[in-house]
Amino acid sequence: MKKAITLFHGPVITAVIPVRLSADRLYDEPERIARIIATLPRAFVPLIVDYGTGEDRAGELRDLAAATGTRLIRVETGDQPFSVGHARDIGTQHAETQLVLYHDIDFLMSPRGYERLLEETRLRGMPENAYAFFAVPGVYLTEDFTRRYLDLFAAGDCEAAFADTLAHDGVMRRDRSVYENHTYAISAIVANRYHLLAIGGHDKSFVGHGAEDFELLHRLASYAPRGPKTLDYYRNTLNNSIQRYEGFRAYFALYGIDLFQRGLQVAHLWHPRRQDTSYVAPRFHNQERVSQIMADYDAGKSWLPPLEDPYAAERTLVLLKDETAPSLGALRHAFPAFGRYEIRREADFADAGALIALMDEKGFGQVLFLNPYGNEHRLSLYKGVKSAGRRFIVWDRGGLNDSWFFDPGGFLAESSSYSPEHWDKPLTAGKSQIVRAWLKAHEDGEPLEKNGERIGAAALREKLRTGNKTIIFAALQRPLDTATVYFSGSCGNAAGFNRWLAHLAGALDPERYVVVAKKHPLEAEAPEIDGVLFAEDDTHMMDLIEAAETVVTINSGIGLIALGCGKPVICCGNAYYAHPGLVITASSQDALVTAVQNPVRPDEDKRLRFFHYLIEEFYSFGKAKYRSRITKSGVTSRLVRQIAFSSLRGLTS
Q1: Helix (H) or strand (E) holding 303
Q2: CA distance 315 to 334
Q3: Pairing state of beta strands 391-397 and 179-183?
Q4: CA 564 to CA 436: how far, in whole Å?
Q5: What does DSSP assign to residue 413?
Q6: Cα–Cα distance for residue pair 450/168, rounded to 1 Å
Q7: Pairing assessment for the beta strands 189-192 and 179-183 based on DSSP bridges
Q8: CA-based Rg of the chain, rounded to a whole angstrom?
Q9: Which of 142, 217, 147, 225 minimizes the C-alpha distance to 180?
C-alpha cells in the first residue's frame, strides 16, 4: 500500500518566538526578530511572546509587530524571572496552526532551510500523526563566522542557503573557526499543538534558560520512542557527544540526527552572554534537577496539568475522587477539548444541587464523570445532573480492544448513545467490507485482559477432552464490577449468574452439551459452579469463543467480542449491545436453557451496522499503560496511567 502524501495549503507551523528584551541593549534583538519574520516562508506564522520586557523597551516590540503584521502576545510578569518554557507554552496556546516550532531569537535558517523543515513534517506524516515530533540540530556559530553567515544571508536566498551549507560543512570537518559547539537536538522542537497542550507543555518549575527543553523532550519521547534507551539514561552528561550511547542527551539526539545527516540544521547566532540573574542563575540549578524530574515522571509521581485551549468555547468541570487519581494521566489528551476546565473532588459537593449550583456560578457547560457507578456518592451526583437535563460526559473503557468511550448519553446499558437510531442505518458494500476486515484483525489482536497463547479451537477441544460435544462458553465477570452490580438484570448479580449456569448445565443433555468457563483474569479464584467445566486460567478467550457454539454472559465485553465474531450470544443481564437481531436476552433460567438449545446467529446487516457505529463514530481508540496492584486476597486491580490515543470521539459537538 502506498503511503499517503500530505499536501499543505495555507499556514502550517507557528514559529513561537519568546523574548524579554535586555535592559542593557546587549545586542541587536529586535533586528534579529525582524530578520526571522522576513525570512519565514508563507507556511510559517510568526508569533512573538513578549514575556515581561521592561516598559522602556516594550514599545520596540509593539512597533516591530505593527510594522511586520505579526501577532504579539504581551505577558505581564512583574518581577518574576524570565521563563522561556512558560513563554513558549503561551505561544503554543495562542497558535492557530496544527504544528508549532519553538524559535528563539538567536536561531536562523535560510528560506530554503525552513522549506526543508516543512518537508520534514511531511516525511513524518505530521500533523495527522499527533505524537510525531522532532528537534532541529543546532550549530552554535563563532563570532567571526556569525558575521560571515549574516553577510551571505543578506546577499539573497541562494547565498543564504550556501551559508547553511557552510555551517553544516564546518561541523562535518570539525572546523572550530565556524562553530563553538553543536548538538543534534536543540530546543527548536517541532511538534503537534494539541499534543503539546495535552502533555502540559513545559514544566514551569524551570525558570530562565536551561534543561527545560530536555524535560519536555523526555515527555514527548514517552509517546514516540525511537529505539532502546541509553545506558544510565537519567545521567546528564553535560556534553553533546553521542559516541558513547549513554545519558539522555544521546537518546534525544535520535530525534534530530537524521535531519543533520540530510544537511539540515539551525544556526545559533553568536551574541554576548547575558549576565542578569533571571537568565544565568537558574540554568545550573535546572541542570542539576532535570534528571530527577524525568525519573519522577516515569514513576508516575508527577502531574503536569494540561494547558487550556483559549480558542475552545467549552467550559468543563472535571470530577474526580481525588486530584491525584491515576486517570488524570490517562485523560491527558481529552483535556484540550474540554476548553477551560477545573478539576474538583467529588467530596466537595454534598449533593447534585451543590454541583449544579457551581456549574451555574462558574459557567460550566458540562461535567466529566469517570465511571459514574464507581461509588454511591458519584452515582447520586451523576443521576442528579442527568435528571436536571445538564450536559455531561462519561468516560470509561470500551468493550473492544484498546477502545474507550466519552459518552454524552449515559453509561453502558442505560445510555441513549446505543439506541438503534444512531447505528441501524444501511451501509455501502465498501463500508461493510471495511468493518469485516476490522473485526477479523481484531480477532488476532491483544485481548482486553492478559491471556495465554492461542492454540486454536481444535487443540482446545482436545485439551478439554470435550469430544464432539457442543461447547457453551460462559464468560464470567468480576462480582464487584459496576456492570455486574448495577446491570445484571434478571439474574441479579454474579452469584445469581453462577446459579443460572448451574441450572443450565443440569438441564442440558450431558452427552450433547458441555458448559465451559474460566476464571476471570483479574480474580484470585474461580467460583465453584456445579456441572461447569473450567478451562485452565491462561486459556485464550478467543480460543474459547472459536470453539463455542454459543456464548453466555451477563453483559461482559466478551459478549461484544463474540458478537463481532458472528457467534450467537445470550445475555442474562442488561447489555448495551443487546438489541433485537444482535443478541438474545434471557429473562429467566428456563429462558436461558431454551435459548441455548435454539441458538440464533446475529443478523449480518445489523451486526455490521452496529460495529461500524462503534469503530467509526462512537469509540475512541488508544494504547494504554497500566499500573497493577494485587490485594492481600489475591485480587488484581489495574489502573490506567497513560493512553496514546489514535482517535478521540465524543468530546465536541
Answers
A1: none
A2: 13
A3: unpaired
A4: 9
A5: G
A6: 50
A7: unpaired
A8: 30
A9: 142
**Amino acid in position 141:** L
Do the bridges between strand 391-397 and strand 584-585 make them parallel or antiparallel, or are there none, so unpaired?
A: unpaired
Whole-model pTM: value is: 0.90
Tens digits of per-residue pLDDT, 507-566? 999 999 999 999 988 888 899 999 999 999 999 999 999 999 999 999 999 999 999 999
CB 178 within 8 A of CB 167: yes
Distance CA(216)–CA(221), nearest Å, equals 9
Quote the CA–CA distance of 68 and 11 in Å, as a whole number.
17
- Cβ distance 337 to 371 under 8 Å? no
Q: Both ends of the chain: CA-CA distance in Å?
A: 34
CA distance 322 to 382: 17
Strand order in the sheet with 189-192: 71-75, 44-51, 13-19, 99-102, 189-192, 134-135
Distance CA 627, CA 454 (A): 25
Residue 628 has pLDDT above 80, yes or no: no
The region, left, alpha or beta by phi > 0 then psi within -120 to 50, assigned to residue 477 is beta
Question: Measured between alpha carbons, how far is 355 from 486 in angstroms, rounded to an integer?
Answer: 23
| Cα–Cα distances in angstroms (integers) from residue 524 to residues 317, 374, 446, 499, 538, in the given order | 37, 21, 22, 20, 13
